[in-house]
Design a protein that fits this description.
Chain B: It is found in: Cell membrane. The complex is a heterodimer of chains A (about 350) and B (about 290). Chain A has about 350 residues and is mainly alpha-helical. Chain A contains 14 helices and five strands. Chain A has a three-stranded mixed beta sheet with strand order 1-3-4. In chain A, strand 3 and strand 4 form a beta hairpin. The longest helix of chain B has about 30 residues. The chains are: A mainly alpha (about 350), B mainly alpha (about 290).
């Protein structure tokens, strides 16, 4: 009995190994192709696009990064937060307010943004961690709206309904030289760098044991706690990581449009991020950028032709939920006959 | 003294509106376990129908049945497609689908009814005020309180004390068993959704008299209704009533005492409650498997 099993297993291993060699080659090739494609996709606009388009692309990358951070919660933790805009918008306000007093050094801005995102995530986490599903959704919504109330009514600091504008330009001190990041191309490069680092960080988080534990807490919370994992601690860590990434994105946000308003904190912004996430694909990390690109393109380009762009976004969103619940990225993949991306989170 | 009586009545009328909206949502959420975020759209539709009806010169009291019917019809159509396919799906998918639909409806209604605020011309009978302890109080708000409480009591009786209510509750616990008894559970669910949507439309029409109808009302109402239902605890009539009263009173009196941060305080009260009682004021006992 034992021997048969051993033989079977070795044969199985050998068969797997034989299949793995071309697969490995193909995987390396596809990785290289992907890297080339990404480089071309990111570098192309720098040569081809104008200042306005590059600012727009920077905005896509920044919002996409925020959506990516939401994906950590929704796609991997099963935690649908309607208060995510509070982390993003809160960091944006913190960066904008700091910039008015101390100038807008990129590194300082990122540090302020990340710190704000982490602190807000901790506050949100402490409030929210005891509940799950619908209760988490509502509680994160309430906490986010409380921050919105503060932003909206604290006129002296946040500008109230008018928001803040007119900050110093974003600068980067590289050794002795100082680069001013106020044109489309420079903002685009900065946003791309932050987005790339965020994607890397999210990848590391998801592949690390904590990321696996997070997926476990989504799938079988009771079994995970029976195994000795602390579910609230896992979720809090995910929330903090997500807050840090959202904060980094938020720190750049005011400088792209030279404006930040209370809408960046409002729950409808959170809902918009969820729409982008679903269109791009829940559980697919770079799907977040695809979703942000689709949504913002419709918003920007279609709104100049018709007032009914919200109708169209809504219809696309509903169709995505009905037809491609895994999102556009996975939908296209399955059309090309490849298995859908890992993660997931919707069924 | 008179001032506080008036404020209490104000809070009560607001609570009743919250209660009606919340109960409509709670029917579907608690009984059918379906998160219906288009409920705000039903309310807005009812508000538009009500506002239009009040201004049209037709018998004013028919506005409420009309709003109920309009929202109920919308609910019926939506139940056929696509809600029915999503009853068995996860909460996340239901949230996504219904939120997307509410975005579509919000834009359709902005298209159809215009983007300006519709404040209806109220009928003679409801426009007056009565004096309570030398303070004027609008009759319409008293009408809302009376009408709403009667409706809520009727609903409680129907769900809790009649055979139809028992059938609906049984459908949720064990759908297959109810089917075996020869009842068509799909029709029962359809009926519940239509009633829920109709209630949303009705409360919209009632509220149109004091809140008027405007784009964005759907989202505001939806959020408040969700907070009411969730803070109250899923599946409990008492909880929904209690949390509607709490939120109504918190919002009204916060506006009196701390006008600048009224919403902040009211939201804070609800958040604190939800943190202390993570499954709502009146929690159903559930077993984890």
């Amino acid at each position: 009995m034992n021997r048969i099993e051993t033989v079977n297993r070795t044969e199985l291993l050998r068969a797997e190994g034989a299949a793995a060699v071309p697969q490995l080659g193909r995987r390396i090739l596809s990785r290289v192709a992907l890297a080339l494609a990404v480089t071309a996709a990111l570098g192309g606009p720098l040569l081809l696009a104008g200042d306005y388009q590059l600012r727009f692309l920077a905005e896509i990358l920044i919002i996409g990064t925020a959506v990516l951070s939401l994906d950590l919660l929704v796609g991997f933790g099963g935690l649908v937060s309607l208060g995510h805009a509070a982390l993003f918008g809160g960091a944006a306000y913190a960066a904008a307010i700091t910039a008015q007093y101390w100038g807008a050094d990129l590194i300082v801005m990122l540090a302020v943004g990340i710190a704000t995102g982490v602190v807000l995530a901790l506050v949100l986490g402490v409030v929210v961690m005891r509940t799950i599903s619908l209760f988490f959704l509502i509680l994160s919504l309430i906490v986010g709206q409380m921050l919105w109330e503060v932003v909206f009514h604290w006129r002296e600091v946040t500008g109230g309904a008018d928001g803040l504008r007119g900050f110093p330009p974003l600068t980067l001190h590289a050794g002795v030289a100082t680069v001013v990041l106020n044109s489309g191309p420079t903002l685009y490069v900065a946003a791309a760098a932050v987005a790339g680092l965020a994607l890397l960080a999210a990848h590391c988080f998801v592949d690390a044991p904590i990321g696996r534990a997070l997926v476990g807490s989504r799938e079988r919370a009771l079994r995970m706690s029976a195994l000795g994992y602390s579910i609230p601690a896992i979720r809090l860590m995910a929330l903090v990581a997500s807050g840090a990434i959202a904060g980094a994105a938020g720190a750049l946000y005011p400088f792209v449009n030279q404006y930040v308003g209370p809408n960046a904190v409002h729950w409808t912004m959170s809902a918009m991020m969820i729409i982008m996430l679903v269109i791009g694909g829940v559980g697919s990390l770079y799907g977040a950028f695809v979703g942000a690109a689709i949504y913002l393109s419709i918003q920007t380009y279609l709104s100049s032709y018709t007032d009914r762009w919200q109708l169209l976004v809504g219809l696309i969103f509903v169709m995505t939920v009905l037809v491609m619940p895994q999102g556009v990225v996975a939908g296209v993949r399955s059309l090309l006959g490849r298995r859908p991306a890992g993660g997931g989170g919707v069924s | 003294m008179g001032f506080y009586l008036i404020q209490t009545l104000n809070a009560l009328s607001f609570s009743v509106l919250l209660l009606l909206t919340g109960l409509g949502l709670s029917l579907v959420l608690s009984l059918m376990n379906f998160v219906n975020l288009t409920h705000g759209s039903f309310v807005l539709l009812g508000a538009y129908v009500g506002a239009w009806w009040f201004g049209s010169g037709l018998p004013w009291w028919l506005a409420f049945p009309a709003a109920f019917a309009a929202a109920g019809l919308a609910g019926l159509l939506l139940e056929r497609f696509p809600f029915r396919q999503f009853y068995a799906r996860t909460h996340l998918m239901q949230v996504l689908l219904t939120y997307g639909l509410s975005v579509v409806f919000a834009d359709l209604m902005r298209w159809g009814f215009g983007a300006q605020i519709m404040s209806p011309e109220m009928p003679e009978l409801l426009r007056g005020v009565i004096f309570l302890m030398d303070m004027p109080f609008p009759i319409y708000r008293l009408f809302i309180i009376g009408f709403g409480l009667a409706l809520a009591a009727g609903l409680w009786f129907a769900v809790d004390r009649t055979i139809w209510g028992a059938v609906v509750r049984a459908c949720v616990v064990d759908r297959g068993f109810v089917e075996t008894l020869g009842l068509d559970t799909r029709r029962i669910f359809t009926a519940v959704l239509v009633i829920s949507a109709g209630l949303g439309g009705l409360s919209g029409a009632l509220g149109a008299g004091i809140l008027s109808a405007y784009p964005g009302l759907d989202e505001e109402v939806l959020i408040l209704a969700l907070i009411v239902v969730v803070v109250g605890g899923l599946g409990t009539f008492r909880g929904t009533v209690a949390s509607a009263l709490l939120l109504g009173f918190a919002m009204t009196f916060a506006k009196v005492w701390v006008p600048e941060f009224s919403n902040f305080v009211a939201l804070g009260v609800m958040a604190a409650l939800l943190v202390m009682l993570p499954s709502g004021l009146v929690a159903q006992k559930t077993r984890q498997v």
